[in-house]
Design a protein that fits this description.
binds flavin-adenine dinucleotide; single chain; 427 residues; 21 strands; five-stranded parallel β-sheet; alpha/beta; four-stranded mixed β-sheet; 2 domains; 10 helices
Length: 427
């Protein structure tokens, strides 16, 4: 087996952010070698392994907020007939299984090299300056042994800032007050729902009655489910709180708790809700969906106020308007939702992708530098896609310059101009 990889840009994590980072890096700089490592045997991250569905908001009235590679992915899904609401201007209900296939195609077509079933759990660094280090290599664990991967530039798209963590970089986790993170959710989908099935509001009333009668079901006291077509509902119903999701032992218990809650709820649907008697479980997440773990400490910490003020940063690399959406970290039924002013949107500054203390690394996706509250809004699939796209453009650009500089030194105007050329929306 090949035991080493040498590349120009190494992207770790094949969620939407990582896929788009790898594709954008290669498209921006076709001469560079771009390598993508993913711990599963398929791409998509939370959108596939976590069975997250559908896309949350990427439009404001009739204005598109996320374009570029995210749009290209969805145009391909529409063309292949695997987007449920394809006739809408802003479709959101993608086919989770076919998403994997389309992502394979896009990554391969771009000329990105890939390794599946590879988990990075060791990062070698050396000192670069008084206050920063440089990544020298990553060690990828596989069933056949370990692989030593060296690159000039690295992108951490693990969703949990694993590379920053293993590199000994700075990170924070959870609420600033007590470190608690949002609960995780095991998503599941129920099919063969009968014509008599009541709507979600009525299921919500039945949930309350059932819980009063002593069945704990899940911590939620309403029904959060999305129409998945074909007489199926996609349930975002479980709420697993109080675990350190970066500790594999705690994760073991959390996964079991997620399945326990899902199973209780599925039995409740079958036994107590008209129309569900012959329902089937179409699928459940390959893994527990993690909303929040580590966040990097970057050159800029995006705040709640930045979002509520709809700040347009001069170094913006993406837009969004999804609400602040915090499922209670204590695991109660509460959700703190605060909407962004209608018809407006916020922006994501490039500086939030740059770790303060690692000079040849960018972070793409969920763990960018933000407060706990700001993170709750920017964590959605479209926004993480835009962030990934931008990280890839920046990496392609810096590799093109064969630069001895750092991401901090990159000309943001150049990144923005390339992003616009590639269909990204920045205004
Ligand atoms: C329960 C839940 C519900 C959500 N609901 C919605 C919703 O309805 N709509 C919406 O738009 N967003 C939703 N989100 C948010 C969204 O799914 C995620 O925030 C988003 O997928 C993050 O994308 P990412 O690419 O940054 O990370 P991820 O999707 O987590 O991808 C990270 C990838 O890295 C891989 N990886 C991780 N560590 C390593 C390692 N050490 N080595 C190698 N590979 C590694 C993983 O396998 C994964 O493929 C939800 C999230 C959760 C958890």
């Amino acid at each position: 087996m090949q035991t080493s990889i040498e590349t120009d840009i190494l992207v770790t994590g094949g969620g939407l952010a990582g896929c788009f980072a790898a594709i954008a890096a290669k498209r921006t700089n076709p001469a560079s070698r771009v390598f993508l490592v993913e711990k599963y045997g398929f791409l998509g991250g939370m959108a596939t392994a976590g069975f997250v569905f559908p896309y949350m908001s990427y439009k404001s009235a009739n204005k598109r907020l996320v374009g570029g590679l995210f749009k290209e992915l969805n145009d391909r899904l529409v063309k292949e007939g695997f987007m449920l609401d394809a006739s809408r201007d802003f479709p959101s209900r993608f086919d989770s299984a076919m998403l994997r296939c389309v992502l394979d195609t896009m990554v391969i077509e771009a000329g990105v090299d890939m390794l599946f079933h590879g988990l990075v759990n060791c990062v070698e660094t050396r000192s670069d300056s008084i206050d920063a280090k440089k990544i020298v290599s990553e060690t990828i664990q596989t069933k056949a042994g370990s692989i030593h991967a060296t690159a000039k530039w690295y992108i951490d798209a693990t969703g949990n800032a694993d590379i920053v963590f293993h590199a000994g970089g700075k990170w924070v986790m959870g609420r600033e007050s007590d470190g608690l993170v949002q609960p995780a959710t095991l998503n599941f989908r129920v099919g063969n729902i009968g014509m008599l099935a009541p709507n979600r509001q009525i299921i919500g009333v039945k949930i309350k009655t059932e819980k009063k009668a002593g069945n704990p079901l899940t911590p939620r006291d309403n029904c959060l489910a999305f129409d998945a077509g074909h007489h199926q509902l996609h349930f975002n119903q479980t709420r697993v709180a109080g675990f350190d999701f970066t500790d594999p032992f705690a994760m073991t218990a959390a996964e079991i708790e997620g399945r326990k809650q899902a199973s209780r709820f599925i039995h409740f649907l079958r036994d107590k809700i008209p129309g569900y008697k012959r329902s089937t479980v179409v699928d459940l997440g390959t893994e527990l969906g993690l909303r929040e773990t580590r966040r990097i400490v970057g050159e800029y910490v995006l705040t709640e106020q930045d979002l509520l003020d709809c700040k347009q940063f001069p170094d913006r690399i993406g837009l969004g308007n999804y609400s602040i959406d915090i499922h209670d970290p204590k695991g109660t039924a509460n959700t703190d939702i605060r909407h962004i002013p209608a018809g407006k949107w916020y922006s994501i500054p490039f500086r939030s992708l740059i770790p303060k203390d690692i000079s040849n690394l960018l972070v793409a996706g969920r763990p960018i530098s933000a407060t706990h509250v700001a993170h709750s809004a920017i964590r959605i699939l479209p926004t993480c896609s835009a962030i990934g796209h931008a990280a890839g453009v920046a990496a392609g650009l810096i590799a093109q310059a064969n630069s001895s500089g750092t991401f901090k030194d990159l000309l943001v105007a150049k990144i923005q101009s390339l992003l616009r050329d590639q269909g990204a929306v920045l205004e």
